[in-house]
Design brief:
- The chain is α/β, with parallel strands linked by helices.
- The protein has 11 helices and 8 strands.
- α1 packs across α2 and α9 crosses α10.
Length: 297
């Protein structure tokens, strides 16, 4: 959320009490009602997550509920589902199957693998409120192929409806280098061989672009001027990189990112520009184990 207030001095720290929203650019606390009103006027609001933290998914449900009260014409997009699962999502929202059947037909264990209990409250919210669910992801082998050989080598008919991504900015490359560096114990790009790092970026951007394409396509096709809420890994959203950048390339400008925070007194400097607002969570329970590791997400 843009602010006319002066930015906080570089290196300053500030208090961020639990159950409050904070502007990362200024260090000011934001009134929740005013923030939600502003977010409800957006075209797209992206709610970042760490996939295995239950408290984050509770926060996503709370924010989605607030926005739905203000903007009932809504769709919720999920990174968890590839496009081929869209008919199953439609049938679930229409009330045509029980939970066990939904998890089986959506291939949950194969396409995602995290404990479904983390996400089921969000899925049931969409079903109960008849909110359209959008499958934002692409066929997983496409990500692998783009990473290996690039877009040009893949025939258009095999791109799963995803268009080639806008080139990664130097800022995004530095951001992804820091992420991969944390995994390897170094924040330097050379922690990963250059060719491997380029493959990683291409794969990450394939996901970024897929999420953006599905959202943009829905905004074009919908007749009720909906708000689209995106449930997406924060690594695809932070600092305006990833999916927000690809949405802008597709002509969708009115996009906001909201993120959960767990630190009581973060440093301003590295957080400036990370999102429109941060919500300080209650102390999360330990993350749940996951079956298969995924790229920064």
């Amino acid at each position: 959320m843009s602010s006319t207030a002066e930015p906080a001095p570089a290196g300053a720290s500030f208090a961020h009490p639990r159950a409050t929203w904070l502007c990362p650019d200024t260090g000011r606390l934001l009134a929740q009602g005013e923030l939600m009103q502003a977010m409800a006027r957006k075209r797209v609001v992206l709610l970042g997550e760490t996939h295995d933290v239950a408290e984050i998914h509770r926060w996503q449900l709370h924010v989605t509920t607030c926005l739905h009260l203000l903007r009932p014409q809504m769709a919720v997009g999920f990174e968890m589902f590839p496009l081929r699962i869209q008919p199953v999502l439609d049938a679930w929202v229409a009330g045509e199957m029980d939970t066990a059947t939904f998890l089986e037909r959506s291939e949950w264990a194969q396409v995602w693998g995290f404990d479904p209990e983390l996400y089921l409250p969000l899925f049931h919210f969409c079903r109960q409120q008849r909110v359209k669910m959008l499958a934002l992801n692409c066929h997983r082998p496409l990500v692998t192929r783009v990473g290996q050989v690039g877009w040009e080598a893949i025939p258009v008919e095999e791109r799963d409806g995803v268009t080639p991504s806008a080139p990664a900015t130097e800022g995004y490359r530095a951001y992804l280098a820091a992420i991969t560096g944390r995994f390897s114990g170094s924040a330097k790009p050379e922690a990963m061989a250059p060719e491997r790092f380029d493959r990683f970026i291409r794969a990450q951007q394939c996901w970024d672009r897929s999420f953006a394409c599905r959202i943009a396509d829905h905004l074009v096709e919908a007749t009720d001027d909906p708000l689209v809420v995106g449930i997406i890994g924060r690594g695809h959203l932070e600092y305006g990189h990833g999916t927000p950048f690809q949405l802008r390339d597709l002509g969708v400008e009115d996009v906001a990112v909201l993120l959960p925070a767990t630190d009581a007194a973060p440093e301003v400097e590295p957080l400036a520009g990370i999102a429109e607002a941060l919500f300080r969570l209650d102390t999360p329970e330990p993350p749940q184990s996951r079956r298969t590791p995924r790229a920064a997400s």
